[in-house]
Specification:
The protein is mainly alpha-helical. It has one domain (15-514). Helices cover 71% and strands 3% of the residues. The chain has helices at residues 15-33, 36-60, 77-97, 119-127, 134-150, 154-172, 179-214, 225-234, 240-257, 265-272, 275-300, 305-328, 333-352, 357-381, 400-403, 405-419, 425-439, 443-469, 484-502, 505-514, and strands at residues 66-68, 73-75, 384-386, 389-390, 478-479. It has a three-stranded antiparallel sheet with strand order 4-3-5, with no helix packed on it. Helix 1 packs antiparallel against helix 5 (134-150) and helix 2 runs antiparallel to helix 3. The chain is globular. It starts with 14 loop residues before the first helix and ends in a 5-residue tail after the last helix.
C-alpha cells in the first residue's frame, strides 16, 4: 500500500485567508450566543478587526513568492496586491454595511423569512433592527475572494468562486425595503451564477482532457496552472479541447466581471440588492474576478495568447459599447452605475489582454482606483432618501445641488472621475491601461475605449446638469445627514479618488513592483 504524502502547507502565507475564515465562523457563534441588542456592534467590530488583521498579514507576507498547499495556492506579487486591495475595499464596504443612523435598523431586513407585504413585514421595515448575519456572510465572501486571487489550479479557483458567490446570493436578498425587487435580484443572480459555474466546471473538464492528451504530467494530466502552461506551450496535440475548455472557463469568469454578453444580471442585481452590498459587489467582486482572470490568462494560457486575444478583444469592445450606450438610456441611478460598471469591465479587459508587466500593473491600479470611487458613489446613493427609502429615480435628483450642495458636489466629483476627467483617478487609470495597450500594439482597443468613454460621459453629465441646473420640485428628496461610518467611507473614497488622480505614482510603482506571477 502506498504511503499518503501530505502536502506542505505554509500557514503564514495563508494567514489572511485563515483570519477572515476564522472571523466568519466566530461571527456565526456571535449570532448564537450574544444578546440581540449587542450583536450589531459586536459583529461590526469583529469584522473591522478581522479585515485589519488580514491586511497586516498581507503586509507581513509582502516579500513571499511561493506556491503552497500542494501547489493549490500561489502567493506572489499580484496575489498580495489584490488581496490587500480587496481587504481595504471590504473595510470601506463594512462601514457602509454597518451604518444604522441614516435609516432605522440599517439597509437590511430583520427577518428574511417574513412574508413580503404582511403586517409583520411592514412592522419590521419600520422598527426592527436589521439582520446582523450580513457580517459573517460578508466575511465569508471576502475570504473566498482572497482565495480566488491566489488559486493556482482550476479546482481551487472553482471552490473559491463558490465560496464568495453563495454569500453574495443571500446578501442580495436582504434589502429592508423593496423586498420583492431584492429577492428577484437574488434569484436572477443565483440562477445565472449557477449556469456560469457550470460552464466553468465543463471548461475545467475539457482543459483536463487536453492536458491528459498532451501528457502534461507524469500521471497523465492535471488542472494546476503549471501543468496547463506546459501542455499549451509544448504539446502538439489537437487544440480542440484546449480552445473549448478556455472558452467555457472564460464564460464563467466573464460572468463575474459583468462583461457583455454575460452582463444581463448586472442592472437588475445592482438595483435590487441593498445599496451597501451593491457597492461591495461593484468594488470587491470586480477585483477578485479580474484577479482570477489575470492569473488564468498570464500564467496558465499565456502560450495561447495569439489565439484568445482577438476573441477577448472583441468581447472587450462589445462590453465597452454595451455599457456606454445602455447607460445613456437609464432612468435609475443604480442601473446607470450598473451599466457604468459594465463599461469599466471592458476597459479593464483591455489591460488584461496586454500580457506584459505594464498591462498587469495598470489593470491592478485601475481596479483599486475604480473600487474607491464606486464605493463612495453608492455611499452617496444611500443618503438621497424620501419617506419610502432611497430615491434612485433620476427625476428625483433634479435640483439636488440646491438643497444639498455638499453631497451633490461630492457626487459630481465622483461622476467626473468615472468620466475620466483629469486630476481624478479615473483619468490616470484609463491613461495607464490605454498606454499599456498602445505599447502592445492594440491600437484598435484604445480607439474603441476612447470613443466609448466619450459616449459614457453623456449620462454622467446629464446627472450633473439635473442636480445643479434644474429647479428642485416637491418630489426632490432630501439628503440624510450621514452617520460617522458613512461619512468615513465617503471621505476615504473621495480622498483616494483625488490623490490617485493628482499623485498616482506611489500606487503605480507598488503595482509595477508586484506585477510578476510566480510560475
Amino acid at each position: 500500500m502506498m504511503d499518503l504524502k501530505l502536502p506542505d502547507i505554509d500557514y503564514a502565507a495563508l494567514a489572511p485567508i485563515l483570519v477572515l475564515f476564522g472571523a466568519s465562523v466566530l461571527g456565526i457563534l456571535v449570532e448564537a450566543f450574544v444578546p440581540r441588542k449587542s450583536r450589531h456592534l459586536t459583529q461590526l467590530v469583529l469584522g473591522l478587526l478581522a479585515v485589519t488583521g488580514a491586511l497586516v498579514a498581507v503586509v507581513l507576507n509582502a516579500h513571499d513568492r511561493l506556491v503552497t498547499a500542494g501547489e493549490a495556492v500561489a502567493v506572489d506579487g499580484p496575489t498580495l496586491f489584490l488581496q490587500g486591495s480587496i481587504l481595504v475595499l471590504a473595510g470601506m464596504a463594512l462601514l457602509l454595511i454597518g451604518e444604522r443612523t441614516v435609516q432605522r435598523g440599517g439597509a437590511f431586513v430583520a427577518h428574511a423569512a417574513v412574508t413580503v407585504g404582511s403586517p409583520e413585514d411592514h412592522r419590521q421595515a419600520a422598527d426592527s433592527e436589521g439582520a446582523t448575519e450580513v457580517y459573517p456572510l460578508t466575511l465569508f465572501a471576502v475570504s473566498g475572494m482572497l482565495l480566488f486571487v491566489a488559486a493556482n489550479d482550476l479546482l481551487t479557483m472553482f471552490i473559491a468562486l463558490e465560496a464568495f458567490s453563495l454569500p453574495l446570493y443571500l446578501l442580495c436578498a436582504l434589502a429592508r425595503r423593496r423586498r420583492l425587487l431584492s429577492q428577484e435580484a437574488a434569484l436572477k443572480y443565483f440562477l445565472l451564477g449557477s449556469y456560469a459555474s457550470a460552464f466553468f466546471l465543463f471548461g475545467m473538464a475539457l482543459v483536463y482532457g487536453f492536458t491528459v492528451g498532451a501528457g502534461g504530467t507524469g500521471s497523465g494530466g492535471g488542472v494546476d496552472f503549471g501543468t496547463i502552461r506546459t501542455a499549451v506551450t509544448d504539446s502538439a496535440a489537437s487544440e480542440v479541447l484546449l480552445f473549448g475548455g478556455l472558452a467555457l472557463l472564460s464564460i464563467g469568469l466573464l460572468f463575474k466581471i459583468a462583461a457583455a454578453p454575460f452582463h444581463v444580471w448586472t442592472p437588475d442585481v445592482y438595483q435590487g440588492a441593498p445599496t451597501p452590498i451593491t457597492g461591495f459587489m461593484a468594488a470587491c467582486t470586480k477585483v477578485a474576478a479580474f484577479g482570477g482572470l489575470l492569473r488564468v490568462l498570464h500564467v496558465a494560457f499565456s502560450g495561447a495568447s495569439w489565439d484568445f486575444t482577438p476573441v477577448l478583444g472583441v468581447i472587450a469592445v462589445l462590453t465597452m459599447l454595451v455599457g456606454a450606450v445602455l447607460a445613456v438610456t437609464q432612468t435609475d441611478i443604480k442601473r446607470l452605475l450598473a451599466y457604468s460598471s459594465v463599461a469599466n469591465a471592458g476597459y479593464l479587459l483591455v489591460g488584461a489582454l496586454v500580457l506584459s508587466r505594464d498591462g498587469l500593473s495598470s489593470t491592478m491600479f485601475y481596479l483599486v482606483a475604480y473600487g474607491f470611487t464606486v464605493l463612495a458613489a453608492f455611499g452617496v446613493v444611500t443618503l438621497v432618501r424620501d419617506a419610502d427609502g432611497e430615491a434612485t429615480h433620476l427625476s428625483r435628483w433634479a435640483g439636488l445641488g440646491r438643497r444639498s450642495p455638499l453631497y451633490a458636489g461630492i457626487f459630481t466629483f465622483l461622476l467626473l472621475a468615472f468620466a475620466g476627467i483629469p486630476l481624478t483617478s479615473g483619468f490616470t487609470s484609463k491613461f495607464a491601461v490605454f498606454g499599456a495597450a498602445l505599447d502592445a500594439g492594440q491600437v484598435w482597443l484604445v480607439i474603441a475605449g476612447v470613443l466609448t468613454s466619450m459616449i459614457l460621459a453623456f449620462p454622467y453629465l446629464r446627472v450633473v446638469v439635473m442636480m445643479w441646473l434644474s429647479e428642485p420640485g416637491e418630489s426632490t428628496p432630501t439628503v440624510s445627514l450621514p452617520g460617522g461610518l458613512t461619512a468615513a467611507a465617503l471621505m476615504i473614497g473621495v480622498v483616494a479618488t483625488l490623490v490617485l488622480g493628482v499623485a498616482p505614482a506611489p500606487l503605480l510603482d507598488l503595482a509595477n513592483g508586484a506585477a510578476e506571477f510566480v510560475r
